[in-house]
Amino acid sequence: MKTFKDLLMVSLTGLFARKVRTLLLLLGPMIGVAAIIAAVGLTDSAKGDLKAKVNKLGTNLIEVSASSAFGGQDPTLPEDVLDRARSVVTVKSVAKVHELANIVVTPYNEARDKYEAVPIPVLASDVLLPSVLEVKLISGRWLNEFDEQATSRSAVIGIGLARQFNYLPGETRTIELGNIRYGVVGVLSEVELEPAFDNAVFITFSAAKADFVDADKILANKIYVRSQVGAEKDTSEALKIAINLGGPDEVATDIKSEALQLAAQSDQQIKLIVVSMGILASIVGGVGIANVMSISVIQRSAEIGIRRALGHTRSIIASQFLLESLFIGLLGGICGVLLGIVSIFLGATIAGWVFVLAPWLPPAGILLAMVISVIAGLYPSVRAAKLEPLETLRLG
Predict the structure, then answer these.
(1) pTM score of the predicted model
(2) 194 lies in the same domain as 145
């Protein structure tokens, strides 16, 4: 065999002459590489979606809630909590809420039995809550100063509750809170950083006091704060001191974007597990390549013997089988990369994520498949090279 081109043609002919065997050999590296590409790509796509959400929603929303030190079993924050929160120089805006208890919410009185066991949050809220949450209304309007001053029985519902109650945008609609009818004036859009709000009912503090609270005044048990970007941790700690005037354990603070970041970390762990499984599948595929090619050496012993008799050296015979292993890794890697990319595209499309594929991933997947295949082909290549012409003709 005079040139590398001739060796290349012999190797390709050896592969394509046995199509079923070659196809079976391709499955190992193809499945392994596809699993790795899909795992990394889908995790990156999910992470990209989370990053997009965090960038859109902001990382600077802080929830401050009362502990038992402020009011025992039904803790509330101080009456001037908004002024205390605004005294922190890194606070940009703040809104307060009070979650009411034991109120049955139904779309109409006849459905009371169905919804009586379903806890639907009812919150007294001030007029600034949507602007602090940076969430828009998809229908109608939010509670305003007139509703508060006139003690009007106006309510805004979350988008999840609107779907549950079959609310139509712009529809003149009432709902039952306890045994009291409230008019729905708006529907709040999805609140990514506070999912419970999607199925909640919001009314004014004055209406809550008049209809549901037997007390002289109704105080907030939570506030939502927008801090300056980058100052979330400092603001969170400063709010504890400002609100209870020095007692750092009296209120609890929660930076809402941290839940999304924890979700990204859990996705990273899943990625590592699936990538490890993909590498294991590639190694198992490599073992399969070694086994099948070892059997192929015996099956092609007559061919090897004839070529040895014609003057082909041991190195040429070994190089042929190594080249076949290399081609199997290359083709399997390319097919695996294509299959992985299709999996990422389908998964991202179904989940509504942004398609993300790191540019280094396809060449790395192909290289991994080629390396494992070449390593797997070393033993069959050496075995084929050691066969003597007379022995191979006897085996054949």
Answers:
(1) 0.61
(2) yes
